[in-house]
Every structure is written in structure tokens, then in C-alpha cells.
Amino acid sequence: MMDITIESYIIREATADDAAALREIYAYYVENTAVTFEYEPPSEENFKARIAETRSRYPYLLVEHEDEVYGFALAHAFRERPAYDYAAEVTIYIRHDLRHLGLGRIIYTTLEEELGRMGMRIAYACVALPSGEDEYLSMDSPRFHEALGYRRCGEFRSCGYKYGTWYTMIWMEKVIADFVACPEPLKAYPALLKDAAKHVPGPLSMYDDREVRLVTEYGEMFRGVCGSFSAEFGLHEFGKEEEGVQIDNYIFYKSDIRSIEPVG
Fold first, then answer.
1. Is 80 exceeded by the pLDDT of residue 7?
2. Which end of the chain is more exposed for a tag (fewer CB within 10 A), N or C?
């Protein structure tokens, strides 16, 4: 197994350019497991469309290191009626050879935090359940969600058929924010990021070796351990005389940053 530490990953929003890598991760589960009830992996173009549809309203996050994608997590509407707006369905897929390293907990927790910023109150996960020993499905997903505070709240027996087996699907839920009498209107995730107040306290060296949440002027969210550089270094190394920070392979000048804050 790979030795992955907090210094060696970043969480950011997925884009259309990530479709091929994300599809490859997902295709393994389609072709080899009953974790998903799809029979055939979607095309890369279809995956691009899925990313775009999700990102129009919800977070679609991935975890990576040096441009190598380890997994992804996303949210989408629980139901279409407006009364359900404060609830979201969440999904996660970690590269099959990198499971049980803590990456799932890291990215799922981040997803829940971002949903909370939108005003979400509760998250739901749809999880396939084996009836016993099964080469295509284990109890890993139910146990993973239970460890993160999800509880079983519904069951649909034998509702999915794959690999010659009828599978039961359960719903699991987790309250991620207090229920209040008059909640503020929910804000779509892209608008939440783009409308954030400019907040870049300096100097940026105060964030050295700390995990931060950074939002760019373009409304993209990045999260990881950062290191700062001076204006002189920026000029010498990157051709721009301005201080900034680096998170994994990504360089951000101060003028590129809408907000930056420590997390964890």
C-alpha cells in the first residue's frame, strides 16, 4: 500500500479535464462489484456531462497528489421538490487499490463541510447491502458510513439485480447542521464560492505548513497543506513579482485568492 500523509494530497473541485481519471476509478466498481447498480461504465463524454450537472449546484470534489487522482466524492439532489432542498445525497469512490488508507474519511468530511456552508442540514447515502458472503459486495460501505456517524434509516429489499443476485439497498443519514425554524435560503455551491467576501490576511507566510481552504477569484475551492513564497521568489521562479502560496502542484498568487483560511 502507498504511504499517504496529510502533506501528500490536495482536495479540489473536479473539472471536465478530470473526467477520464474519474471514469477509470468508477469503471472498476461498475465492472467488478455490486457497489453501484450500473451494468456498463459511462463514456468519458457522459462523465463530463455528469460533472457539469453536479457542479451547477453541488460540490464535486476529488483528492489527488501531483496530478494523480486518488478518489472523488460528490453530492446531488435527494429529491427534486423544493422542500427537500436542505437534504442532499452523497456518493464516494476511492481508487480500489487505495482503500482503507483514510482518504475516504478525509474527502467525505470535506464534502460535508462544504454542504454545511451551503446551508444543507442532512446528508443521505444510498448503500448496497450483501445478504452474506459475496464476491461482488462486502460490508465495507455500510461500516464506513457508520464510522462517520451515518445511521440506517430505510431499506428496500431485493430491489437491485446484478451478477445473478438480488441485492438490498439501504438508506443511511447524517445530520450535518442544526435544524432551525426559519433557515436561510440555500445557496448553490458555485455562487457560494464566487460571492464569498474577499479575505486574504497577510503575510501569506502565516499559513506555512498548515492545511488551508483556499477559494480562487474564479470560484474554485482547493484544500491542502500550503507553503508560501515571497514576491522575489515568484519573480525568479515563475516570472511574476508577487507573493503567493503553493498547494501540491498548484501555484496561487495573492491576487488570485479570494479567501484563505486554516482548517482542521
1. no
2. N
